[in-house]
Specification:
Residues 22-315 form the Histone deacetylase domain. Pathway: Ketone degradation; acetoin degradation. It holds the Pfam family Hist_deacetyl. Helix content is 35%, strand content 9%. By secondary structure, it is an alpha/beta fold. The protein has a single domain (5-382), classed as Histone deacetylase domain (Arginase, Chain A), CATH 3.40.800. A seven-stranded parallel beta sheet has the order 1-2-7-6-3-4-5, with helices on both faces. Strand 3 (160-164), helix 6 (171-176) and strand 4 (183-190) form a beta-alpha-beta unit. Helix 1 (27-38) packs across helix 9 (305-316), helix 7 (225-243) runs parallel beside helix 8 and helix 8 packs parallel to helix 9 (305-316). The chain is globular and about 55 Å long. The mean pLDDT is 97.
Length: 391
């Protein structure tokens, strides 16, 4: 089987559309798939069309009352409750069907890995990590990340690591499994004092019977490629080695980028490309190569998300794209019809430098205090020495 990768995609996934000028616009998915095709990343790849998640699939994470509220919301008048009908989570036509299809895409990715059909699988439409058991939150109706993890557990997987690299804390997934020692949730995000949803502090380490199963690395605003990657390598390999997951699930939000309008980190597309390579390495080293990748946030719709996620697809398919590669003219022509006032990128690089200095204790770097706090909160729960800088 090698490193075969299943790509979950169908244009019907674009129907998860919160409308108007909502930041989570499906154009970012359309432009990503078009860019990947234009660069030849998807040559010979036959995408897998998903089926909607079933009631049973969704009910492993969401309450029945909430599922019914989502179904009824488009026809309801006034306040429908459950976080629906807000500016963040507006009600839209066929909301249940569209959100169920996204969740079904993440289940399809999980199924391909568990069945042995592929070592890796990706659903870029997924990554809706904020939805809670009984309410919508943060642009997310159903939490496809948690639904896919729960599906894997229900089908015999005993240890799953969920690694969230979105700029916002992966709160919904952490909440779903906070007391489940079979699931380790790891989130690297902008510090909760400075960004919604205001959770994800280092001392959130899991419930009493699952101490150490939640790992939170809260990064200071302004963290760049070098700091972000320094933090990743200072914490994540050690806890993954201790936990020994059978599958690595990653939420790959593109919003840590310096151009993202909703946050304050400073990564470049080059740093994100290096990050995806790191995730591939971590999956190979610590999860037997079993890697399920999901999309997530990312609100620089035309300049950033398509390039970042094309690099993600290329990494998963072992078809890495040279950062100096020119953006194809056919893609630019199409993107211009959608955003004539945006200065579109011309290459697959921002000219960033993703090199970093490995962590070896606290220095004057602002990210080092975050690394220290997470290591001290979590490492002893895994029998690890917080002061030991060896990978």
């Amino acid at each position: 089987m090698g490193n075969e990768c299943a790509v979950i995609w169908d244009e019907s996934l674009l129907a998860y559309d919160l409308g108007g000028d909502h930041p989570l616009h499906p154009v970012r998915l359309d432009l990503t798939m078009r860019l990947a095709r234009s660069l030849g990343v998807l040559d010979g790849v036959d995408p897998v069309s998903p089926e909607p998640a079933t009631e049973e699939d969704l009910a492993r994470i969401h309450t029945r009352d909430y599922l019914e509220a989502v179904r009824a919301a488009p026809a309801a008048a006034g306040d429908v409750g459950h976080g629906l009908g807000t500016a963040d989570n507006p009600v839209f036509d066929r909301m249940h069907e569209s959100a169920s299809l996204v969740a079904g895409g993440s289940i399809a990715a999980a199924e391909r890995i568990l069945s042995g059909g592929a070592n890796r699988a990706v659903n870029l439409s997924g990554g809706l990590h904020h939805a809670m058991a009984d309410n919508a939150s943060g642009f997310c109706v159903y939490n496809d990340c948690a639904v896919a993890v729960a599906w894997l557990l229900a089908n015999g997987v005993d240890r799953i690591a969920y690694l969230d690299v979105d700029v916002h804390h992966g709160d919904g997934v952490q909440a779903a499994f906070y007391d489940d020692p079979r699931v380790m949730t790891i989130s690297l995000h902008q510090h909760p004092f400075t960004l919604w949803p205001g959770t994800g502090f280092p001392n959130e380490v899991g419930a009493e019977n699952a101490q150490g199963s939640a790992v939170n690395l809260a990064l200071p605003p302004g963290t760049d490629d070098a700091g972000w990657l320094r933090a990743l390598w200072a914490v994540v390999p050690s806890v993954l080695e201790s936990f020994a997951p059978q599958v690595l699930v990653t939420q790959c939000g593109a919003d840590p980028h310096r151009e993202d309008p909703l946050a304050d980190l400073r990564m470049s597309v080059d740093g994100q490309r290096a990050l995806y390579g790191a995730l591939r390495d971590l999956a190979d080293r610590h999860a037997g190569g079993k890697w399920l990748a999901l999309g997530g946030g990312g609100y620089a719709l035309h300049r950033v998300v398509p390039r970042a996620w094309t690099h993600l697809l290329a990494t998963m398919l072992d078809r890495d794209v040279d950062p100096a590669r020119l953006v194809p003219a056919e893609w630019t022509a199409h993107a211009t019809t959608l955003a004539s006032d945006v200065a579109l990128p011309t290459t697959m690089t921002d000219g960033g430098d993703p090199r970093f200095t490995p962590w070896d204790g606290v220095t004057e770097l602002s990210v080092d205090a975050a690394i220290r706090d997470t290591r001290h909160a979590v490492f002893p729960l895994h029998g690890l020495d917080p002061a030991d800088s060896r990978d």
